[in-house]
């Protein structure tokens, strides 16, 4: 997120910079047949922006699949509260894991495609710049898949008219990490690993980031300096951790960086008892890429097949969604699958309840009044902890040897949310 950091440091208005990024590159869309258009009250356009490729591609890998599944379930139409039937187009765009590209796409979709609802799916690098464009050009925007502080605080933390978001908060994730560590016998020394980007700066913040609850719980914290994403050398961090005698590694990284770090830890004889890292350990592919070193890694849990809530669109529960993904894709379920589905549930619900889904203002009013239970849990914007935010359940999880797949993710801590009992107790990593 160097782009945003430069804006802040230079004092240049982010809003004025974004205003010049309205025009984007057009891409093909799935249009509605002419005969169907003629039978409807008009065509609703939904912009769906996701990091389908690039270093954040694992976060977006379920989005295209889920969008098509929702298209099929709805049959290309939507009936709103006013009793009319509309054609529905979902225009998918790839942010390429680039915040500048995400802003460009959002500007094009809002100004040129004249979409009626904007849906950025997953990661701060996609959601934050899209939110900026939506607020600037007054287009309703619903999002999920990033800690809410990371998409609210960089914009000043005030109330917003056009952008709403549902996900867990950084404070809840941080307390989940501490809850995981409290379940282990350690020397209570934690080394922290943060990248030099907006996520690292948020998670590493000394006022509200991971160091705060960790120190409050009686742990000693070592932060040897932020690393550059995609680095190939963690020697300085490892040396600092070894000198401090840390038993635990906590922080946030993406999969490639964590694989490099863990491999070098093993090579340099540094063997912590726990590695608990956000983002990189969400995905089975990221854990499998580390081979035997992946066994016992721990992370936050967004969603699993154990969630009991049925979809408001397909009627499937989370177990059925995961099973269908595994059958259709011939690979293991992954956590963003639940939120890909839940995000579209909320988007469709907003449009169905709108008094005029072809009017952005009507959709904004409907979005603010959201009250729905998705496959990931209830979504309602009740004013706390922020007008534009609904917080969602989060748990602590650990990857252990699996039967059908190399590793299974087990819920091992529910100290923040008691929706489920732990499936097992957390155990130390065996290197």
From TrEMBL:
Family from the record: Belongs to the leucine-binding protein family.
Taxonomy, superkingdom: Bacteria
SUPFAM superfamilies attached to this UniProt entry: Periplasmic binding protein-like I
Species classification: Bacteria, Pseudomonadati, Pseudomonadota, Alphaproteobacteria, Rhodobacterales
PROSITE patterns tied to this protein: TAT (PS51318)
Keywords attached to this entry: Amino-acid transport, Signal, Transport
BP term (GO), one: amino acid transport
Protein name: ABC transporter substrate-binding protein
Pfam families: Peripla_BP_6
Domain Leucine-binding protein: 43-395
